[in-house]
Amino acid sequence: xxxxxxxxxxxxxxxxxxxxxxxxxxxxxxxxxxxxxxxxxxxxxxxxxxxxxxxxxxxxxxxxxxxxxxxxxxxxxxxxxxxxxxxxxxxxxxxxxxxxxxxxxxxxxxxxxxxxxxxxxxxxxxxxxxxxxxxxxxxxxxxxxxxxxxxxxxxxxxxxxxxxxxxxxxxxxxxxxxxxxxxxxxxxxxxxxxxxxxxxxxxxxxxxxxxxxxxxxxxxxxxxxxxxxxxxxxxxxxxxxxxxxxxxxxxxxxxxxxxxxxxxxxxxxxxxxxxxxxxxxxxxxxxxxxxxxxxxxxxxxxxxxxxxxxxxxxxxxxxxxxxxxxxxxxxxxxxxxxxxxxxxxxxxxxxxxxxxxxxxxxxxxxxxxxxxxxxxxxxxxxxxxxxxxxxxxxxxxxxxxxxxxxxxxxxxxxxxxxxxxxxxxxxxxxxxxxxxxxxxxxxxxxxxxxxxxxxxxxxxxxxxxxxxxxxxxxxxxxxxxxxxxxxxxxxxxxxxxxxxxxxxxxxxxxxxxxxxxxxxxxxxxxxxxxxxxxxxxxxxxxxxxxxxxxxxxxxxxxxxxxxxxxxxxxxxxxxxxx
Length: 578
Ligand SMILES: *[C@@H]1O[C@H](CO)[C@@H](O)[C@H](O)[C@H]1NC(C)=O
Ligand SMILES: *[C@@H]1O[C@H](CO)[C@@H](O)[C@H](O)[C@H]1NC(C)=O
Ligand SMILES: *[C@@H]1O[C@H](CO)[C@@H](O)[C@H](O)[C@H]1NC(C)=O
Ligand SMILES: *[C@@H]1O[C@H](CO)[C@@H](O)[C@H](O)[C@H]1NC(C)=O
Ligand SMILES: *[C@@H]1O[C@H](CO)[C@@H](O)[C@H](O)[C@H]1NC(C)=O
Ligand SMILES: *[C@@H]1O[C@H](CO)[C@@H](O)[C@H](O)[C@H]1NC(C)=O
Ligand SMILES: *[C@@H]1O[C@H](CO)[C@@H](O)[C@H](O)[C@H]1NC(C)=O
Ligand SMILES: *[C@@H]1O[C@H](CO)[C@@H](O)[C@H](O)[C@H]1NC(C)=O
Ligand SMILES: *[C@@H]1O[C@H](CO)[C@@H](O)[C@H](O)[C@H]1NC(C)=O
Ligand SMILES: *[C@@H]1O[C@H](CO)[C@@H](O)[C@H](O)[C@H]1NC(C)=O
Ligand SMILES: *[C@@H]1O[C@H](CO)[C@@H](O)[C@H](O)[C@H]1NC(C)=O
Ligand SMILES: *[C@@H]1O[C@H](CO)[C@@H](O)[C@H](O)[C@H]1NC(C)=O
Ligand SMILES: [Cu+2]
What we know:
Elements: H1 2-20, E1 34-48, E2 51-58, E3 67-70, E4 74-81, E5 89-92, E6 118-124, E7 130-136, E8 146-152, E9 166-175, H2 180-190, E10 199-202, E11 219-222, E12 227-234, E13 240-245, E14 250-255, E15 258-265, E16 267-270, E17 275-281, E18 290-298, E19 310-316, H3 323-326, E20 330-331, H4 341-350, E21 369-380, E22 395-400, E23 403-405, H5 412-417, E24 450-452, E25 455-458, E26 463-470, E27 479-483, E28 488-495, E29 514-515, E30 517-520, E31 524-531, E32 536-542, H6 545-550, E33 553-558
Parallel strand pairs: 1-4, 3-8, 9-12, 11-19, 18-20, 21-26, 23-24, 25-33
Antiparallel strand pairs: 1-2, 4-6, 5-7, 7-8, 9-10, 12-17, 13-16, 13-18, 14-15, 14-17, 18-19, 21-22, 26-31, 27-30, 27-32, 28-29, 28-31, 32-33
Residues 76, 120, 122, 569, 572 line the site of one 2-acetamido-2-deoxy-beta-D-glucopyranose.
Keywords: Apoplast, Copper, Glycoprotein, Lignin degradation, Metal-binding, Oxidoreductase, Repeat, Secreted, Signal
Protein name: Laccase
Organism: Hevea brasiliensis (Para rubber tree)
């Protein structure tokens, strides 16, 4: 511990620089060391689009500081909450083997860290390397509380692609002119859809396509004839994003911290919670132009969406810079229509896991437990003495198998571990849709959901197949489903209703992409498989925060196995209480 303490200051300085620019792989000590971080949750005033607002941040930084480790490292992140809101931090995509105590979703694995309280996230990164993200997991606090989580390969290891010259982090986010917490609270009160964001951001900057924003533009300065590794992270709240750079193409090499078979593309599609690493090869000679880096949503939502475009600028460094380079034209790339479902599906279908001796796949070939879950929108009735602004005077809701999740007031993990589930949760989450209908056809005329805090229980190491089915109730829409504590394989996907007889014949059980967040196609279905080898309580939810707030979520309880190393670790002594 002492050794890592002395290393830390140097490390942090290098990384602070990294956010705006690049970083070389730090040649720090051997893997398997303990790294200390301190997250002070504080409010600061930030100005964008000519408006200043107070926002919750980590260490007064927006976006938040990068957390960098190597595979096998041990992390101790001390979170001190100085703001009036509750907070928790989720290490999105970290498997947290047997250690749900460090996962973060409030009221699922822990009680929130309340004002003036501290909690130390204590976890080891086992068998994972690549780009992930960390973000708050209490209400909509993650709108401003998020940052990169970068896991470098072990020192004796290398990337399965040519070593990039520089590495760059591209964090996509969503900016609200007003307080995001007030927005969701207002929406949950009135039953209406929440106000949409006012801008998208690249590394916290909206860029020149917005009023009063040209000075807040992300600039990527590159050298000719080099290969850059872009670590692209979608930390937006509610939007799948298309991402492109004019006159340049990418080689996709990793998705959700899993290497993929490299493929070329000019356009990425990235859902909230997803991360992808791409290689950007710069042109042999510095061109006489600059290039827009653009991101804009993909959406088929019937409701209002923020359809604006964030722009950054890619520019080549030249010896004779200054006035000449300022006058260079900026080339703008085309983007697909916002509702381009065919483009989205085509991109998703190209992702394949890289499979070799070092990175074998472990796709369940046989299934012990089958689940079929509908995911989509619905409504709840308006309370008697209120008028509601949701569909037809109701309140918007969302559900999994028609159950809209109700957050308990005590954390499920503690309740389970200490065998005090009574009054906290029920274990009767439906395995199949309670009332089958034509899920992607004419919607039923009754759109009400049921409500409850229900979990599904899995025996240790069960091989699980879960088919997620979008519904057309209140309109088809994509839903990026995120499973905590696990990666899963996408063995199949398609449009319309899943056909349990014929669709499995076309499953890919050889090189399916391995992810922690995957989009259920708008009006379609997604089949995933995984081994339930990580005991604990694991949240699974739509990573659109608006759908999460409306209840499009559930939790799994994975039981302990027989052996001591198949059982949950005991809770840390500083675990918050509620
Ligand atoms: C933010 O701005 C408000 C209003 O101008 C001010 O009262 C407050 O002290 C500022 N907060 C910080 C942390 O600077
Ligand atoms: C937090 O600590 C500050 C400073 O000690 C104190 O003024 C404030 O009342 C505390 N807030 C809560 C909610 O405990
Ligand atoms: C972190 O967790 C390990 C057990 O997994 C424990 O031995 C260690 O003391 C913990 N460290 C801190 C600082 O809590
Ligand atoms: C790197 O070293 C670790 C620990 O010594 C070992 O488990 C791993 O297989 C090595 N990796 C490579 C790619 O050689
Ligand atoms: C949401 O938008 C409406 C209409 O523009 C506005 O009246 C309301 O104050 C906004 N709500 C919040 C919380 O910003
Ligand atoms: C964005 O949406 C607004 C209102 O829904 C619409 O008027 C505008 O044309 C749209 N802009 C683009 C670029 O699609
Ligand atoms: C996308 O939206 C446009 C304009 O609203 C509409 O004309 C078109 O049919 C839509 N395309 C798809 C694939 O839904
Ligand atoms: C109805 O409104 C009254 C007064 O606004 C409030 O006290 C009461 O809790 C409401 N009842 C319900 C069922 O929401
Ligand atoms: C709205 O509610 C009324 C009364 O319950 C019902 O007759 C009507 O079909 C509903 N309309 C829609 C679009 O759901
Ligand atoms: C479901 O609805 C779709 C769209 O209306 C239709 O094409 C399909 O035939 C329906 N399926 C069944 C089984 O009724
Ligand atoms: C809803 O549909 C069912 C049959 O699908 C029908 O019996 C019922 O009358 C309909 N209700 C309304 C309010 O339209
Ligand atoms: C913060 O968490 C505590 C403990 O669960 C809870 O009592 C309190 O209502 C929460 N505060 C807010 C603003 O949600
Ligand atoms: Cu969703």
